[in-house]
# Entry
Amino acid sequence: MTTPPKTLDELEADGLKLTTYNADGSIKHLGFNPLMSFEENSPEHFAPMINGSWLTKDGTSKIGTSAAWKKLIAWQKAYVDKIGYAKLQAFTAGLGQEFAADNPFQTGQISMVLDGEYRTAFIKSQKPDLQYSTAPTPVLTGYGKYGASYIAGNVAGIAKGSKNPELAWALLKYLSLDTSAQVQIGNGLKNVPTITSALNSPKLEVDKNYKTFIDVAKNPDTITSPATADGAAYITTFTKMWTKYQSDGGDLDAQLKTLDKNIDNENALTGP
# Structure
């Protein structure tokens, strides 16, 4: 491999080529782990692969009627089947923790992973001699927009019983909107700043691997997942459906139809 995969076909081809097996047929080394719910493998993080959308204008789920989502799920399931669900489960069960020094990418047990910008800080701290590169998320040809990805922020609040709500608000405002604070956090944690002035600050320390994530954050096609009446519970519902399908298979159209119904019912029960 001399260039990173830009399409899902390339990701699969490279991943399968890099996968090796023991004499008993078990996985020795994995090129890419396609299992849904492995580390950062989740519907929202896969969404940029198809420039995926979630809801209609009236707030109901459109996942089940989306040709793009169906193609993506079918691709992922087929990839899992080419290696074997049981083999992937057995291999994954023996891996280290995502946020520990024995992370399987850092130990060299997996060649490619879908991950966040913070990984660059973990590698610098835990495996500084690791030779690696970063690249945008590969996309499904004809659907995804290469160079874009998924981005989200964090929610912070002030407790109802706070003894100093004015000071708490001042702190939140400073951490959220002050350019120098955002740059300092970015330089220290390697989390991507959330305001444009910090993204463009010359004081932001950006090496070649961190730059991939800065460029993604600036990309106008980068997407997020919308909030609903029950927060982001619909993603959990989607994840459960997807993880079951990758192991059990079945009628995907029927399962997607049920998924939409479940998401809509959950939102209706939550209410304003």
